Amino acid sequence: MATIGIIGWGVVGKATGKGFGKKHKIVWNNKNDKGSTPIEDLCGKSDFVFLCLPTPMRADHSGIDLSIMDKVIDKVAPLMASKNTPLIIKSTVIPGTTAKYAKKYPKVEFAMNPEFLTEVNAPWDFLHPDRVVIGALNEDVANRIARLHRDVMGYKFRIFTTDPTTAEMVKYMSNTYMATKVIFANEMAELAEKLGINYDDVADMVGADPRIGKSFLKVSPFGGFGLKCFPKDTVAILGLAKKLGTDLSVLQTVWNKNLKIRKVKDWEGIKGAVNNNL
Ligand SMILES: NC(=O)c1ccc[n+]([C@@H]2O[C@H](COP(=O)([O-])OP(=O)(O)OC[C@H]3O[C@@H](n4cnc5c(N)ncnc54)[C@H](O)[C@@H]3O)[C@@H](O)[C@H]2O)c1
Questions:
Q1: Fold topology of 171-269
Q2: Where do the UDP-glucose/GDP-mannose dehydrogenase N-terminal domain residues begin and end (predicted)?
Q3: Rg for the chain (alpha carbons), in Å?
Q4: How far is the CA of 90 from the centre of ligand 1 (A)?
Q5: Is the Cβ atom of 31 under 6 angstroms away from ligand 1?
Q6: What is the mean pLDDT of the chain?
Q7: What tens digit of pLDDT does each residue of 168-218 get?
Q8: Whose Cα sits closest to atom 18 in ligand 1?
Q9: Does ligand 1 lie within 6 Å of residue 16's CB atom?
Q10: Tell me, what's the pLDDT at 82?
Q11: Best residue for ligand 1 mutational test, from 125, 229, 267, 277 (most atoms within 8 Å of Cβ)
């Protein structure tokens, strides 16, 4: 039995704790939570440490705000230097983030393990992944994290081991592709309405094609996409692309269209989605 430390005891942290808790001992820390294990104790006794912290968008939509992650890393990394304990970022962070931390703290075994669960079924999704992606800087760390997953979740899914930046990119391409599909569906629904035909019937027949799939073809009464992750992850990757001088005009149009058609900007009221509401 391993001891697993989890910092950030929210939706993802609790699902991770409940899942790995089936076979392992869990210790967790959450800001301002009296039940927390102090960070020093947690880092001292854990065989793996997962960071499940908020990574909100900036309120001006210019990109991601990594200040919570930066502060926690600056506290945790010195406690884990030369300990051979993987420090695993599970939060969604823009490509290059884990590599940047690894450069700053070369004696820490950093890894990146994006989470793909949905908020409505978080504990179940955690235990039943379609795939697990592990971005590690060496094979030993990748193997240890893979074994941890196999022990608890079995063998029904593929584990991809790669570098941290690739792992980060997988998460953003997944979320922004689904967000793009939602906006495309909204446009097709608008056209169907003009034609006097039933969009849901069209979507059923289109989604029956396995190359397309039925997810994210439904159109919400609020229009576009909301909640926490699609908006903040779209803004984060657009911010990164701008910094790197990469033309993501399709995704920029998707975000602009979402701002235009979404009747409630619900993410503005969700804790951890925008950096003015933490
Ligand atoms: N919610 C989802 O469906 C989902 C799915 C996949 C990935 N993610 C990603 O996982 C990350 C966490 O998301 P979440 O939904 O679990 O967020 P959350 O807000 O539910 O949980 C984050 C927790 O971290 C705590 N926290 C904040 N600052 C802290 C600090 N300095 N030290 C310790 N704890 C601190 C908060 O109090 C909160 O309980 C985000 O990057 C998110 O994008 C979320």
A1: N-(1-d-carboxylethyl)-l-norvaline Dehydrogenase; domain 2 (1.10.1040)
A2: 29-146
A3: 20
A4: 9
A5: yes
A6: 98
A7: 999 999 999 999 999 999 999 999 999 999 999 999 999 999 999 999 999
A8: 10
A9: no
A10: 86
A11: 229
